[in-house]
Design goal:
By secondary structure, the protein is an all-alpha fold. The protein has eleven helices and two strands. A two-stranded antiparallel sheet has the order 1-2. The longest helix is centred in the N-terminal third of the chain and has 28 residues.
Length: 287
């Protein structure tokens, strides 16, 4: 029996005009040398496996990249994920497959094919190009048969709330909470966060904030109060109500016998003032 063909590469070449590529220029302009390093690490991971990299979750991939580069230079998973998704936006990775946690591109597959032209490697999975290196019209093609994902009406009952939520999704408005007041307050908080940072929150970050808010409050009224407090104070996260009260009590007790101070115990910088009504009106108009 013959030895199984090796799918991964031991090395890959880089053209001398690599940095003349407009996509690379865009990446460097947006994220600098660190963004380029993240892209290089991903290329090595991909070619080590073959012509695509399939990961269980993007968060785990971000952690691995941070360990490879060193957390002295990059500390946050969110930044790594932003670079990866930006690479898909400018065409360095295929966006449709990236949403399935599969990282590849037509260019990557084309270069892989040129190196493994004599190797009998199976290249049928997640293909974006044909044997001549031309893009496939129906790529990516990974059909799911009806028997694999058969769904009956009895398995997934649909109620009026689900129908209403689906209608809103069809109008390109994703609903995070069924409670309208909580939904409005959460969206205002997201708008505040996006205004206070260079890069907007990505969907994965918003989902994490949603889960965090949901876990901290026992009722929607508590969650609304937690979210409003974080919005007013400009916090980057949510805190439980009992912790907020304890912080207030400790601050009050420590201020006895002392002169009043305008310093904020949560920040060592001047906070921004927000017009809650104006932001709400802006959010309503953007829908």
């Amino acid at each position: 029996m013959g030895r199984k063909a090796k799918t991964g590469l031991s090395y890959f070449s880089k053209d001398v005009d690599y940095y003349d590529d407009f996509k690379i220029m865009d990446l460097m302009n947006e994220y600098g040398p660190l963004g380029q390093t993240i892209y290089d690490v991903l290329l090595c991971m991909i070619y080590h496996e073959g012509y695509y990299l399939e990961v269980p979750s993007m968060e785990q991939l971000a952690v691995k990249i941070i360990k490879t580069i060193g957390n002295r230079w990059v500390k946050k998973k969110d930044f790594v994920l932003q670079v990866i998704y930006y690479c898909a936006d400018i065409g360095l990775f295929d966006k449709t497959l990236l949403n399935q946690n599969i990282i590849t591109s037509a260019g990557i597959q084309r270069r892989y094919d040129s190196v493994t032209v004599r190797n009998k490697v199976n290249k049928d999975k997640y293909r974006l190009i044909d044997k001549n290196g031309q893009p496939l019209l129906n790529a990516p093609s990974n059909p799911i048969s009806v028997t694999e994902k058969a769904i009956t009406a009895t398995e997934i009952p649909i109620n009026d709330a689900d129908i209403q939520q689906n209608k809103r999704k069809e109008n390109n408005t994703y609903i995070y909470f069924n409670n309208p007041e909580l939904e409005k307050t959460f969206r205002l908080y997201i708008s505040m966060r996006n205004q206070n940072q260079k890069y907007p929150l990505i969907p994965e970050q918003i989902e994490e904030l949603k889960e965090e808010l949901y876990s901290l409050g026992n009722t929607d009224e508590e969650r609304i109060l937690i979210c409003k407090t974080a919005f007013i104070r400009g916090w980057k996260g949510f805190y439980p109500l009992n912790k907020q009260k304890n912080n207030s009590n400790s601050k009050a007790s420590s201020s006895k016998g002392k002169k009043k101070s305008n310093n904020n115990s949560f920040h060592n910088f001047e906070q921004r003032d927000y017009d809650y009504a104006a932001l709400e009106e802006k959010l309503t108009e953007s829908r």
